[in-house]
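Notebook entry, structure prediction.
Reason for the run: the old model in the group folder had no record of what sequence produced it. Starting over properly, with the input documented here first.
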Amino acid sequence: MKPAVFLDRDGTVIEEVGYLNRLDRVSFFPWSVDAVRVLGDAGLRVVVVTNQAGVARGYFDEQFVRATHALIDERMRNGRARIDGYYYCPHHPDGRVASYRAECDCRKPKPGMILRAARELDIDVARSFVVGDRWLDVEMGRAAGATTVLVKTGYGLEDDDRPDGLEADRVADNLMDAAGWILRTLRGQA
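New structure, fully documented this time:
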């Protein structure tokens, strides 16, 4: 089993634009491809885990989510980087689309996406990291038993939904800063 880095998508890999509903609104941070490449080159699996409640709310469909991930994949390949898997939650308990209106185990902060990826991709969650721009990413990582990094991009430290007593293992400026800390941490464990 290999360790992985679980990355939030919006606000961490690509810029936060609210409900992303058109491909022309996808904008990468300048460091994202390089950060994913160095993590992969270090032997880590890189997995995107993202809430996509816009499906349940009727703003876009799952085909659009897959098209967005295909666009991210293309950009990563062009930069010699690779995402090993994409896991998303299309549900929301208040969704307008009945088939997606649900309480589920995959919606962050629950750890369902990480646990599924761990089974499917042979990942050792206890040796893995979760990187995101919201406290619910940190909470999900804690629930799964991973090390957590909160990045200041996207919602970053402006996210007011911090549960009492919740701390990230590291607060980083951005994904590249997080990648450097992760690699230094792993070297220290060797």
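Summary: The radius of gyration is 15 Å.
The old model has been moved to the deprecated folder.
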